[in-house]
Each structure stands twice: as C-alpha cells, then as structure tokens.
Amino acid sequence: MRDPIDQALFAQRQLLSRRRFFSHSASGLSAALGSAALASSLPAATRLQGDGGPGPHFAPRAKRIISLHMEGGPSQLDLFDYKPGLNEWYDKDLPDSVRQGQRLTGMTSGQKRFPVAPSMFQFTKHDNGGDGAWISELMPHLGTVANELCIVRSMHTEAINHEPAITFAQTGNQQPGRPSFGAWASYGLGSENRDLPTFVVLITQGFGNMQALAARFWGSGFLPSEHQGCKLRSSGDPVLFLRDPPGLSRTDRRRMLDLVTSFSRAEQAATLDPEIEARIAQQEMAFRMQMSVPELTEVAQESEATWQLYGDEAKQPGTFASSCLLARRLVERGVRFVQLYMRGWDQHGNLPSEIRQQCKAVDRPIAALLTDLRARGMLDDTLVVWGGEFGRTVYSQGGLSRDNYGRDHHPRCFTMWLAGGGVRRGHVHGETCEHGYNIVRDPVSVHDLHATLLHQLGLHHDRLTYRHQGRDFRLTDVYGRVVRELLA
Questions:
Q1: 194 exposed, middle or buried (CB, 10 Å; 0-12, 13-18, 19+)?
Q2: What pLDDT score does 36 carry?
Q3: Does the pLDDT at position 388 exceed 60?
Q4: Is 150 among the domain residues?
Q5: Are 334 and 192 in contact (CB under 8 A)?
Q6: How many beta carbons lie within 10 A of that of residue 447, not counting itself?
Q7: Within a domain: 405
C-alpha cells in the first residue's frame, strides 16, 4: 500500500491538465531538436486535440474573434429593428396583451402608464445581397457594408440589470466567478503569437450614463490565469511597468527573471501547483511584451489610405476609432480574441441626443474595420460580433415628446450582428412582434450565440470543458445549440 504522502502526490499529478502535458511534451521535443520556436509555432490542433479538453475539435471557419460590446444596451428599435407601424401608437399605452406581465426594472415598475415611443429616426433599406437590411440613419457608414452583416433581431437574455447581464453575456452565467469567453477561446485554441497575449481588452469611454466595467468580465475564472484578458491602457504606457526603470538593462532584467523562475521551478517541483506554471508563463510574456507592445501601438506607420478609412479620431488614443485600428493590428499579429468595450449606451432619458453621439463615435470605425479586414483578406477567418447585454423597451421611461424620450432595459428581445468568420453574409435572422417587445420567430439565446461562435472557432461547445471542484464546466453550461441558419 502506498504511503499517504505518495498517494496525495499521485492524486495531484492526476490533476495536471491536458494542456500542461502537451506543453511539457512539446518543450521536451523542442529542446531535443534545439529549437524552442518549433513548439510555439505548431498549430493548436496539433498540440491540444482531444475529447473533453482543448481543441480545435474540427477544422475552424474562424481563427479569431473581435467582439464589440456596446455596454449599457443599445436601442434596437432606433438602430436595426424597424417598426414604422409604431407611429400610429405614439403615446398610447402598451397593451397588457403585449407586455404579458413580464418583469420590469425598479426604474419603470412604478410608472402609472407605459406610453409607446416610436423611433424618431429614419431608416434605409440597404442592399445586402438578400432581402435587404433596414438600418437607422444613425449608422450610415455601417449601411455601406450591409452585405457583410448577419443581423440577428431575435436575441434574448435572462438578466434584466447591467451587472448580471454583462456577466452573462461575457461568461455564460449571471453569477461572478466563471471564465470569460475570451479566456475560454485562449484555453481552447492556444496562442498564435508567443510575444503577445492571446486575449486583449480595449475600453472606450462613451457619453452619458456609463456602467462600471469589472475586470472579471475578461477574467479567467477557474481556468489558469494565463488565459485572462490583458487590458491595454488608452493613455501613457499601454501596459503598466512596460519600461524598465532607469539603470536596469535588458540583460539585468533577463538575469533577474531567470533567478525568479529558478525559485518558482523549485517550488513547483515540491508542490506540483499548476498555477506556478501559469505565473512563469505570464512573467515570460511580460518580458517579451516590453518589445512587442511598443511596436504594436506604433500606428504612425499606417498608410494615408488607412487614416482616410478610419478617420482622424483613430489618431487619438482612447477613441473607439483608435481601438478598432488597434484591433486590426492585434489580429494581424495572431491575437485570438480582442474585446472592445464602448461604454455609455444606457439611455434611460435623452435617448435621441445621447445615441447620436454614441453612433457617431462607432459607426465609421466599425465600417472601416470590416472594410479593412476584407481588403487584407482577413475577414473570412475573423469573426466580428456587435451588440450589448440586452435591448431597450418600446415604451418610454419618463417623459415622452416627439423629439425626446428614454427607454428602459429590455431582455426579451434585442439585436446583435455578426460578420466574417464563416457566417452568412447579407442575412437577417429572426423577427419581433409589431411592437418590438416579443420574439415571434427564430429566437436565439445568449447560450445559443456562444455555442455558435465556438463552433466557428472549431470547438464543440459541449466538449470544451474544464474540471473544477469535481465538475466539468463549460461556457454554455448545460444549454446552447449551434444556430446553423446563421452560418454560410
């Protein structure tokens, strides 16, 4: 019979992940061949394939994702879900037969009435190579690339308030603690660039009411910490402590890091703690980023044609335009998942003035990003996703006039769109009722969306799992289906 200590060590060894096994095997092979670059250049499918673990599980249509999250919940009724019939309902009460007793937020549950507020904006039906796509006058540049869009008007979510809704949109669960989508993508696919993080986050300040963005929205949860998102700052050094302090040479930094790593290896040999390996990997990544990040953010080398495409705002760090340009540069360099947040889409009042500012900030850069990726031959294997955590109500919150109104949170139906990455071009999916309050055709849940995005990355959503506290967890939990009608 084994000694109890030996039994404990054996049990802990069994917990070593498949990724660690293959990464150690790859390291041993590369050492034998005298080429560390060999292992890092192997495709993820070669290194990580297997049931119940990282993938890809099959040939992917997309190699990477750029997620454009409009934090706050953009109004689908003023942007993509065209309802001209609502003009006849102006200032009339939303029928109880439509509301169906659905829950409301504390901000409007006390209203004496729920007056219908038609959109004051004009819509244009753009040629998308199909039946046409109705897009608001607020998004004229996006209309020029309507043929690239797969618009989903029948999204729905479980959460009605920002914090749980953003958590759900980013992690597949309303409760904190789960890995974010980007972390799952990093875990499942591995890296294509050893000098940059697999998952990068960029944040743009918006206009009006802005909700807090917690770091856990791009956290790794119970996955190894190497998979968490790396947030690039919009002012100063993109990453804190990017530069070595005065008097410390690159050689000194390397020697110091080697010494720390030797201590960490000794501790790992004694404890078999898998997080030590992740910490070593992060330290090495930080060292390499001191060289790669300055080159990444040196946008002055971009051509005049690029500046004309994105606009002068792209030259100003921290703008959404500069983030879109940086997103293109990131995916060019092999970053798997780029998360762009645009804050300020929470228009409970003064919606017309605030949404104009928001759309002006994002419309041209988004169209430029899609055009740029298409011109560089990258859009077919780059999946771009746009949307918020929920939609907005058809009834007005607070006062209603012909030129001003607000809208409350609405999880029952909202609009998102996809582009590139093997999704259907020029397609409009789903339909809402005449009041834009309920879905009447082809509903798509957040879990369904996650399953579909993973599928395009070559990952079975029910096989991409990680064992934690005795259970195999996954992004879609026990739900989700691949919405094949969205795929080319």
A1: middle
A2: 31
A3: yes
A4: yes
A5: yes
A6: 21
A7: yes
Q: How confident is the model at residue 24 (pLDDT cuts 50, 70, 90)?
A: very low
Strand 64-70 relative to strand 337-342, pairing: parallel
Cα–Cα distance for residue pair 16/274, rounded to 1 Å: 7
Supply the pTM of this predicted model.
Answer: 0.85
Q: What's the count of helices (H) and strands (E) in the chain, helices before strands?
A: 14, 17
Please give the Cα distance from 453 to 138 (Å, whole number).
Answer: 27
Q: Which of 424, 342, 369 is nearest to 145 (CA)?
A: 369
State how far the alpha carbon of 241 is from the alpha carbons of 200, 231, 245, 254, 276, in Å.
17, 13, 8, 15, 21
Output the six-digit token pair for 417: 């769109």
Contact 273, 267 (CB under 8 A): yes
Full residue range of the structural domain in which residue 468 is found: 63-242+305-486
Q: Which residues contact 202 (CB under 8 A, 6 or more apart)?
A: 231, 232, 234, 323, 326, 327, 338, 339, 340, 341
The model's pLDDT over 95-116, given as tens digits with 9 standing for 90+, comes to 999 999 999 999 999 999 999 9
Tell which residue, 388, 339, 414, has the closest CA to residue 181: 339
The count of domains in the chain is 1
- Residue 102 located in a structural domain: yes
Q: Which amino acid is at 143?
A: G
Strands (E), 213-353: 230-231, 337-342
Instruction: Give the model's pLDDT for residue 424.
Output: 98
More confident residue, 25 or 59: 59
83 CB neighbour count, 10 Å cutoff: 21
Which CATH number belongs to the domain containing residue 442 in this structure?
A: 3.40.720
Assigned domain for 103 exists = yes
Tens of pLDDT, residue by residue over 249-266, are 778 778 888 888 888 888
